[in-house]
Amino acid sequence: MPAKKVLVVSGKRKTAFARAIVKQGNGKVRINKTPVEIYEPDIARAKIMEPLLQAGSETWLQLDMDVKTRGGGYMGQAEAARMAVANALLKWTKSTHLRTVFSEYDRTMIVGDSRAKETKKVGGAGARSKEQKSYR
To answer: Of 17, 25, 33, 80, which sits 20 to 30 A from 115 (CA to CA)?
Structure first.
């Protein structure tokens, strides 16, 4: 009996991290145990659905994806999940055509965006601001 094919793919954005587990199935995509069709908020759902819509239904309707996200805010988690889903589709299909479709639409679906918030420093309210001084 042959072993079942299972892929584990990850995606990161700022401090958010997503891990997608992909296996043969019938098109169920879940984000933190919630079906993607009813995932809230709507803008995050639209972000996660982008690679699925770009790939076409014949590609992902034969797969089951279970995505778990941690850290960051809801949009950071959505973008991390989007990256994990896109890379999972690329790994599963091994399609160069799909890779070009994703990169022409938005390159951050495949390659991570390394930007993150700059850390706060001593002597001010934020990363760059300093407390004012007046000595004249």
So the answer is: 33
Give the pairing of strands 6-13 and 34-35.
Answer: unpaired
Angle at 80 between CA 90 and CA 17, to 5 degrees: 115
65-90 mean pLDDT: 93
**Residue spans per domain, the chain:** 9-108
pTM, to two decimals: 0.84
Cβ atoms of 119 and 127 within 8 Å: the answer is: yes
Q: What is the pLDDT of residues 36-67, one digit of tens each?
A: 999 989 999 999 999 988 888 788 888 899 99
Distance (Å, rounded) from C-alpha 98 to C-alpha 134? Answer: 60
Residue 95 corresponds to which amino acid? S
Cα 76–chain centre separation: 8
The answer to whether domain 9-108 has CATH 3.40.50.2300 is no
